Amino acid sequence: MSEHPSELRYTTEHEWVRVEDDGTATIGVTFFAQDQLGDVVYIVLPSVGATLQKDTRMGEIESVKSVSDLFVPISGEVIEANQEVIDHPERVNEDPHGAGWMLRVRMSDPSEVERLLTGEQYDQAVAS
């Protein structure tokens, strides 16, 4: 059984995207990413209003093992940063596809989502 929900889309950099009913997108890191990182202790995210370009750096995530860049899976404007995950980075380990989300974005090009990996494709990518 997959740890990666099928309704999400994924990047090879281990971020996920959920398209919400209102057409916005929620972004986080995958179960696989948080598992590889270990205990997450610090997160830096862009501010509300920031414009993000697909495949560029959007912040960083620090664990007891390492510091890693976070990359933008889809272009758009940040409409919300999850203050709970900034204040309590361990939420990423506890619930990476739920309470551990990082950003909500107003997408500038919704078609970018279709070019991301499906859950099955992502599972295959991390299994190899």
TrEMBL record:
Modified residues annotated as N6-lipoyllysine in this record = K65
- Would you tell me the Gene Ontology cellular component terms? cytosol; glycine cleavage complex; mitochondrion
Q: Which domain of life is it from?
A: Eukaryota
Entry keyword annotation includes Transit peptide = yes
| Keyword terms, alphabetized | Lipoyl, Mitochondrion, Transit peptide
Query: Transmembrane as a keyword?
Result: no
What cofactor does this protein call for?
(R)-lipoate
Q: According to its UniProt record, which protein family does this protein belong to? A: Belongs to the GcvH family.
- Protein name as annotated: Glycine cleavage system H protein
Starting at the broadest rank, the lineage of the source organism is: Eukaryota, Metazoa, Porifera, Demospongiae, Heteroscleromorpha
